Amino acid sequence: MNLRRIFLFPARVWMALFFAAPLAIVCGYSFLTRGEYGGVEQPWTFENFTRLADPLYLAILWRSVRIAALATGLCVALGFPLALFIARAGKRRNLYLQLVLLPFWTSFLVRTYAWLFILRDTGLVNTVLQSLHIIDAPLQLLYNEGAVLAGLVYNFLPFFVLPMYATLERLDPALLEAAADLGARPLATLRRVIIPVSMPGIVAGAVLVFIPCLGAYLTPDLLGGGKTVMLGNLVQNQFTTARDWPFGSAASLVLMLASALLLAGLMRSRVRKELM
Amino acid sequence: MKRRELLAALAAAPLAACTRDNRPRLNVYNWSAYIDPAMLARFGRERGVRIRYGTYESNEEMLAKVMTGNSGWDVVFPTHSRLVPMARAGLLAPLRGTRLPSLGNLDARFRAPVWDPDLRLGVPYMWNATGIVYNRAELHRRGTPEPRDWADLWNPALSGRLTMLDDPEDVIGACLQKLGYPFGSTDAGQLAAAKAEAVRQKPLLRAYINAEVRDQLVAGDVLAAQLWSTTASQAIHAEPKLSFAYPAGGFPLYCDCAAILRESARVELAHEFLEFLLLPDVAAANARVGETATANAAARTGVADPVLYPDDATYQRGTWPTALASVDQRYRDRLWTEIKSA
């Protein structure tokens, strides 16, 4: 038993120092008053949380949820067929998995910047379309919600594909044979066998995409041109130009709470039994 | 006895390795790309000191670190409007003019600046203004008049090819000045009107974007942008079809100043460093590397760049923003969030 403690000790210290302690600081800050030029001051207050109930900030929360949900939906739509394809690719599975992971070899920031060069007026897409005489004038592809969605889907797609692949790969072929024996056409097999059986993987992948999308701030900033505010941007702004750390702390706690509630809801649901 | 000696030697070996370099160390925290590395090396060589050099991207980033009063930095470069608040918070060591004999090298505009008339808080280092950069050739081709004032950035002819800075102070300030109000207004009515102007302008905007707009200006994607004169000057060097306008009705000026932190245990050495930065050839090298405007007149001889160094008549139209009080800052942030959410 002591051995177990010894092995757990480093992880415990790590979590206490770099997770629990910072979280406690954020909690503490969220109940304080902003300092004149940044930082926090007494007295203690609930005001930072009541301020968030303002329709202005609720609209930002709603926008974040909507964009994150859209990005998640797109990831599911794109990632499920891809994962199914990889799971059935036989010997080439590992190659395809490596290709899905390839973007992770460069930093998140660099990958997002690359999209600027793809989408801008003199960028790749517009240049190709113009040289093929499909369009006369460049399309405004950058700095709108579509560009933000493209960036989010691109960056978080692997987070969906990997758990989805893990689920589909373990799918018992006997189930598919049984479905075929019973006269199910491929589409019916997909709808009535594969999707229900792999639901835990879909949910796990969707959560892994939805939560980081909800807190995204770099992508909306760079690809949205700062014209839309998501919750992540609001938090970032409070710690920079607005110099309102307590309000930023409160907003980030609400963001964390929203993610935690979502996870808790999933854990309680029937899905959990299937995951276990 | 022998064993004890051996042990002592073993114990002393790593200590010796640590203390080999016992030259004094100066800790300098500056904006990124704001100094010539060769000048840092030269100071270290000439004075026999080591320099630990770090960079930051915003005043807030720097303030967050030094606010503790135990940051380990000696010299920082806050923007002029942050000097008084920092001094009030007890963060700055007062400068001693007698230790800075080369203060006379400063441009006359910076020898007694409004924010620090006796130069007790910081030595003016580099400065710039916010104005309008535009694609002269393309606007001419389209028959769109060249922008001369903030109001020209509301021209529908620029729709989709126009950007504003991603900075509440500059955007709300430009809207206020467009309406003829002061850049740093705290009047609720004036601010509400300014916000309405920003919301009215938003459909024309491609983006709220800072220095990254430079590439898109050079590529011709963006035809007009609210931008800092230094970034604009860099873009103009890359693409001569671009021009810069200092808005007719007024514009903000910013000056980054070298200041010594109160927590510093090397105030003497820090003064030597500030004096070193004032030397004409050092200041000239730093301005060249940073592609910025130096506050040092002696360093500037022979440089005639109307973008970086506006003439006196133009300069007189500029204002030096002051730091906003907490309550005003909070109101502005709310307006900014409303503008961004509109």
Describe this structure in words.
The complex is a heterodimer of chains A (276) and B (342). Chain A has helices at residues 2-30, 47-52, 55-87, 93-101, 108-119, 124-131, 145-169, 173-181, 186-197, 199-214, 218-223, 231-239, 245-268, 271-275; strands at 33-34, 40-41. With 276 residues, chain A is mostly helical. Chain A has one domain: MetI-like fold. In chain A, strands 1-2 form a two-stranded antiparallel sheet. In chain A, helix 1 (2-30) packs across helix 13 (245-268) and helix 3 crosses helix 7 (145-169). The longest helix of chain A has 33 residues, at 55-87. The model of chain A has no long low-confidence stretch (mean pLDDT 90). Chain B is an alpha/beta fold. Chain B folds into two domains: 23-127 and 254-310, D-Maltodextrin-Binding Protein, domain 2; 128-252 and 320-341, Periplasmic binding protein-like II (D-Maltodextrin-Binding Protein, domain 2, 3-Layer(aba) Sandwich), CATH 3.40.190.10. Helices cover 41% and strands 17% of the residues of chain B. Chain B contains 13 helices and eleven strands. In chain B, strands 1, 2, 3, 4, 5, 6, 7, 8, 9, 10 and 11 form an eleven-stranded mixed β-sheet that branches. In chain B, helix 6 packs across helix 7 and helix 7 runs parallel beside helix 13. The longest helix of chain B has 18 residues, at 2-19. The chains are: A mainly alpha (276), B alpha/beta (342).
Furnish the topology, listing elements before pairings.
The complex is a heterodimer of chains A (276) and B (342).
Chain A: H1 2-30, E1 33-34, E2 40-41, H2 47-52, H3 55-87, H4 93-101, H5 108-119, H6 124-131, H7 145-169, H8 173-181, H9 186-197, H10 199-214, H11 218-223, H12 231-239, H13 245-268, H14 271-275
Antiparallel strand pairs in A: 1-2
Helix pairs in contact in A: 1-13, 3-7, 3-10, 7-10, 8-9, 10-13, 12-13
Chain B: H1 2-19, E1 25-31, H2 37-47, E2 50-56, H3 59-66, E3 75-76, H4 80-88, E4 123-135, H5 136-142, E5 162-164, H6 168-178, H7 188-201, E6 205-208, H8 213-219, E7 224-228, H9 229-238, E8 242-245, E9 251-260, H10 267-278, H11 280-290, E10 293-294, H12 312-316, E11 318-319, H13 326-341
